[in-house]
Amino acid sequence: MRKSGHVVRELESLTITKLHPHPTPIGPDCLKPMGSAPIMPPKFDPGAPENASLINLFTSLGLAQNSATELVRQPKSGAALKSLIDEYHLDGKTRDEKQAAALVKLSTARTKLGGRQKGYIVEKIGKGDLRTPDQVAGKMVSG
After folding, report:
1. Average pLDDT value for residue range 14-34
2. Closest listed residue to residue 105, CA positions, set 68, 135, 64, 72
Protein backbone atom coordinates (compact mmCIF):
# COMPACT_ATOMS: atom_id res chain seq x y z
CA MET A 1 0.00 0.00 0.00
CA ARG A 2 2.77 2.37 0.85
CA LYS A 3 4.25 2.00 -2.62
CA SER A 4 1.01 2.83 -4.46
CA GLY A 5 0.54 6.00 -2.41
CA HIS A 6 4.09 7.01 -3.27
CA VAL A 7 3.41 6.44 -7.00
CA VAL A 8 0.24 8.55 -6.88
CA ARG A 9 2.10 11.47 -5.23
CA GLU A 10 4.85 11.16 -7.82
CA LEU A 11 2.32 11.27 -10.69
CA GLU A 12 0.61 14.30 -9.19
CA SER A 13 3.87 16.18 -9.16
CA LEU A 14 4.60 15.55 -12.85
CA THR A 15 4.05 18.45 -15.21
CA ILE A 16 2.83 18.72 -18.76
CA THR A 17 5.17 20.86 -20.81
CA LYS A 18 4.53 19.93 -24.41
CA LEU A 19 0.77 20.39 -24.47
CA HIS A 20 0.50 23.48 -22.32
CA PRO A 21 2.70 26.56 -22.61
CA HIS A 22 2.96 26.86 -18.82
CA PRO A 23 3.73 23.68 -16.87
CA THR A 24 0.79 22.59 -14.78
CA PRO A 25 0.52 19.76 -12.28
CA ILE A 26 -1.42 16.75 -13.50
CA GLY A 27 -4.86 16.81 -12.03
CA PRO A 28 -8.40 17.87 -12.89
CA ASP A 29 -7.24 21.38 -13.87
CA CYS A 30 -5.04 20.08 -16.69
CA LEU A 31 -8.11 19.08 -18.71
CA LYS A 32 -9.66 22.56 -18.70
CA PRO A 33 -9.42 24.48 -21.99
CA MET A 34 -6.60 26.98 -22.29
CA GLY A 35 -7.25 30.61 -23.01
CA SER A 36 -10.61 32.21 -23.58
CA ALA A 37 -14.02 30.77 -24.34
CA PRO A 38 -14.48 28.52 -27.39
CA ILE A 39 -14.82 30.26 -30.74
CA MET A 40 -18.45 30.39 -31.84
CA PRO A 41 -19.58 30.87 -35.42
CA PRO A 42 -21.04 34.28 -36.13
CA LYS A 43 -24.73 34.59 -35.35
CA PHE A 44 -26.96 34.37 -38.41
CA ASP A 45 -28.72 37.63 -39.24
CA PRO A 46 -31.47 37.29 -41.87
CA GLY A 47 -31.65 41.09 -42.08
CA ALA A 48 -28.02 41.45 -43.18
CA PRO A 49 -27.94 42.76 -46.77
CA GLU A 50 -26.25 39.69 -48.28
CA ASN A 51 -28.66 37.33 -46.51
CA ALA A 52 -31.77 39.42 -47.18
CA SER A 53 -31.06 39.56 -50.92
CA LEU A 54 -30.72 35.77 -51.11
CA ILE A 55 -33.86 35.23 -49.04
CA ASN A 56 -35.78 37.56 -51.37
CA LEU A 57 -34.40 35.76 -54.43
CA PHE A 58 -35.41 32.36 -53.07
CA THR A 59 -38.90 33.51 -52.03
CA SER A 60 -39.43 35.09 -55.47
CA LEU A 61 -38.61 31.67 -56.94
CA GLY A 62 -41.53 30.21 -54.95
CA LEU A 63 -40.05 29.03 -51.66
CA ALA A 64 -41.77 29.83 -48.38
CA GLN A 65 -40.04 32.46 -46.22
CA ASN A 66 -38.96 29.87 -43.63
CA SER A 67 -37.52 27.53 -46.27
CA ALA A 68 -35.64 30.36 -47.93
CA THR A 69 -34.22 31.53 -44.61
CA GLU A 70 -33.07 28.00 -43.72
CA LEU A 71 -31.35 27.66 -47.10
CA VAL A 72 -29.45 30.89 -46.56
CA ARG A 73 -28.57 29.78 -43.03
CA GLN A 74 -26.78 26.77 -44.62
CA PRO A 75 -24.10 28.39 -46.80
CA LYS A 76 -23.41 25.37 -49.04
CA SER A 77 -27.06 24.74 -49.84
CA GLY A 78 -27.80 28.42 -50.38
CA ALA A 79 -24.81 28.81 -52.68
CA ALA A 80 -25.82 25.71 -54.64
CA LEU A 81 -29.33 27.06 -55.30
CA LYS A 82 -27.98 30.51 -56.17
CA SER A 83 -25.59 28.88 -58.64
CA LEU A 84 -28.45 26.92 -60.25
CA ILE A 85 -30.56 30.09 -60.52
CA ASP A 86 -27.69 31.97 -62.16
CA GLU A 87 -26.65 29.14 -64.46
CA TYR A 88 -30.15 28.54 -65.85
CA HIS A 89 -31.43 32.16 -65.63
CA LEU A 90 -34.25 31.27 -63.24
CA ASP A 91 -34.46 34.63 -61.47
CA GLY A 92 -37.74 36.41 -62.07
CA LYS A 93 -39.52 33.13 -62.89
CA THR A 94 -41.96 32.23 -60.12
CA ARG A 95 -42.95 28.66 -59.51
CA ASP A 96 -45.20 27.02 -56.97
CA GLU A 97 -43.66 25.91 -53.70
CA LYS A 98 -43.32 22.25 -54.73
CA GLN A 99 -41.52 23.15 -57.95
CA ALA A 100 -39.22 25.48 -56.02
CA ALA A 101 -38.49 22.64 -53.57
CA ALA A 102 -37.75 20.41 -56.58
CA LEU A 103 -35.18 22.96 -57.76
CA VAL A 104 -33.63 22.95 -54.28
CA LYS A 105 -33.43 19.16 -54.44
CA LEU A 106 -31.70 19.36 -57.81
CA SER A 107 -29.26 22.03 -56.64
CA THR A 108 -28.22 20.20 -53.48
CA ALA A 109 -28.05 16.71 -54.97
CA ARG A 110 -24.77 14.94 -54.41
CA THR A 111 -25.15 13.17 -57.74
CA LYS A 112 -22.71 14.24 -60.42
CA LEU A 113 -24.95 15.41 -63.24
CA GLY A 114 -23.63 16.99 -66.39
CA GLY A 115 -24.82 20.41 -67.52
CA ARG A 116 -27.11 18.93 -70.16
CA GLN A 117 -28.70 16.51 -67.70
CA LYS A 118 -29.24 19.24 -65.14
CA GLY A 119 -30.62 21.57 -67.81
CA TYR A 120 -33.03 18.87 -68.93
CA ILE A 121 -34.34 18.43 -65.38
CA VAL A 122 -34.63 22.22 -64.89
CA GLU A 123 -36.65 22.36 -68.13
CA LYS A 124 -38.92 19.51 -66.96
CA ILE A 125 -39.52 21.31 -63.65
CA GLY A 126 -40.31 24.55 -65.54
CA LYS A 127 -42.85 22.78 -67.77
CA GLY A 128 -44.48 21.13 -64.76
CA ASP A 129 -43.53 17.59 -65.80
CA LEU A 130 -41.54 17.23 -62.57
CA ARG A 131 -43.27 18.87 -59.64
CA THR A 132 -41.86 17.37 -56.44
CA PRO A 133 -38.42 16.74 -54.94
CA ASP A 134 -39.12 12.99 -55.03
CA GLN A 135 -39.78 13.09 -58.78
CA VAL A 136 -36.53 14.99 -59.27
CA ALA A 137 -34.64 12.45 -57.19
CA GLY A 138 -36.14 9.64 -59.28
CA LYS A 139 -35.20 11.38 -62.52
CA MET A 140 -31.63 11.88 -61.31
CA VAL A 141 -31.32 8.17 -60.55
CA SER A 142 -32.94 6.97 -63.77
CA GLY A 143 -31.13 9.50 -65.94
Report:
1. 53
2. 135
